[in-house]
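User: Could you check the structure of this?
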Amino acid sequence: MPWKNQGGGPWGSGPKGPWGSGPQSSGPRPPDLEDLLRRGQDRLQSILPGGHFSVMGIVLLLVAAVAIWALSGFFRVQSEELGVVLRFGQHVRTVGPGLHYHAPYPIESVLLPKALRVSTLSIGMRYDESRRGGSFRDVPEESLMLTGDENIVDVDFTVLWRIKNDGVGDYLFNIQNPEGTVKAVAESAMREVIGRTNIQPILTGARTATETAVQDLMQKTLDSYNSGVLIQQVQMQKVDPPAQVIDAFRDVQAARADLERLQNEAQTYANRVVPDARGRGAQILQAAQGYKEQAVAEAKGQTARFLKVYDEYKKAPDVTRQRIYLETMERVLGSADKVVIDPGSSGGQGQGFVPYLPLTELMRRPQAAPQAQQGSTR
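Assistant: Sure, the predicted structure tokens are below.
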């Protein structure tokens, strides 16, 4: 007879073992799989019409499953995102922010890249939150670059970029690490532009030209990759010589500033003196031209006068000769002291000189006396 029919076995009644005690329990018993299946079937039968798996119940289950599957195609695109709809893995369309619908998975799926957000990439510096208050620290392996005249310059710059509106598909499928790609292209472009430029323009007035050149070179390179990335701006934050020689470079900058100041002062002086000299030169030329015209006019007048006198001389030579003689003597003797000699008194009675009263000298003396008195009063 089996032990279960013998009052619990050879060790007595009840579930006892050979040492007089029942089996030891080590914890809560795991749920029975058959029990779980049975409970699920009972619950499903209570829901289905008729309480059992009828055709109507199966149809309702299928309809509910299809409805849930169809509703899973709704998706929302946020303000900074663009929705890229894929049909069996192929890009079919791009939608903007808002509520949209696509065929449920696995027919179609959607990717939501932040295509409308402008991202900032810092090169040559990193924001360190571990420092007090948070600050940027230099990354020399990214910022130290060689210039065209074989000098070393420390360049920290930032790049503002985003995804092109018509290049979302290229951005998702043509590049694996977008941020790393943009960073590598930015560093390479900056090194190339700096390598073609001397250090002095980079430190002074060529920053804008350098930023534009780097932006154009980056965009050209990324377009050749079909990356779908748009470079909006390149900003050079800090451009300095290496820390070991920065004091010497500042002295050079001060000397160059003094040179420019002296050149500006010299140019200002030249701008003031040269027009003055040109004005005096023009004045002298005008005076010479006036003298020339005057001399030519006087010469022409003398010639015309001589020709007229000559015409009269041909008509009456004696009269004209006498007139010329008298006019000449008048012009010669007009300013000379006059002495009158009487030839008839030379017979021994006198010296032959006629007393002459110098009226002209007497008239000059009263005029000179008041001028002498005025000079003494001064």
